[in-house]
Write a structure and sequence with these properties.
By secondary structure, this protein is mainly α. The protein has one domain (61-286): MetI-like (MetI-like fold). The protein is 70% helix and 1% strand. It is built from 13 helices and two strands, in the order αββαααααααααααα. The chain has helices at 9-42, 59-65, 68-98, 105-113, 120-130, 136-143, 159-184, 188-196, 201-212, 214-229, 233-238, 248-257, 262-286; strands at 45-46, 54-55. A two-stranded antiparallel ribbon has the order 1-2. The radius of gyration is 24 Å and the shape is globular. The mean pLDDT is 87.
Amino acid sequence: MKRFADLTYLKQQKVVAFLFLLLPVLLTIVFGYLPFASMIEYSFLRWDGMGTKKFIGFRNYADILTRPENYRVFKVSLYYLAVSIIQIGAALFFATILSFKLKGKAFFKGVYFFPNLINSVAVGLIFLYFYRDTGTLNTFLRFLGIKSEVLWLTDPKLVNWSIAFTSLWRYMGYNMIMFLGAIQSIPAEIYEAAELDGANWWNVFWHIIIKTIIPIVKLMIILSITGSLSAFDAPYVMTGGGNGSETFVIRTVDTAFKYNKIGLASAMAMVLTVIILIVTAIQEKFFKTDN
């Protein structure tokens, strides 16, 4: 066997690359692909997580697709999707402003991005107290002279909007940084040429900035839709899925660990995975552009 020092430089590079990739690939297989394969297996079983496993074929899937309440929870995702659109628009607006010379823009970038660094459970607890009947929001409204007795987390008409707007506060900064990086990669010569041609700010924004950062916009939309479909942390911490705020993921978790139906919950997770893959494929088709 040749020693490492006796290998050619090219082979040494391959060996080093292989060793660096070995551990991440093993971890991905062990904690990613193997659990996913087990989930596929469990989706065809009736199993409570402890007792005997019984193969029941596609009954779990039939149960999911024939229960109307499983379709209702997807309506909750529409609230998160609507807020995500606002979030992307706000992030693009602030990114465009901060991409040009602005006093103190480093400070503003830090302020906008900071919420993304906070743990999702902590964010849920922060807004749980913010939206309480005697919490920060109602107290502030009363300070302004507005008699507010709004039940932000118990009124079914408001609860989903209230929770969804927590994602606007948390993720807008992340989207803004992504857009900002893409905008700053545009060469300054292009702006100068546009200025010489008499382009106004709208022409610059639409024909230069937007056209250049389309791949990032596409990525943000994909992440927003998949995140809307798989919302879990904030509604689970703030309401536990009550008052009409239950999402499909919360229903899946409750099915697995509250009602001990591991097989049915695995099938629900597989259905959600397929839905996300289909939505992503449709988006890829819709946003497909020539090189």
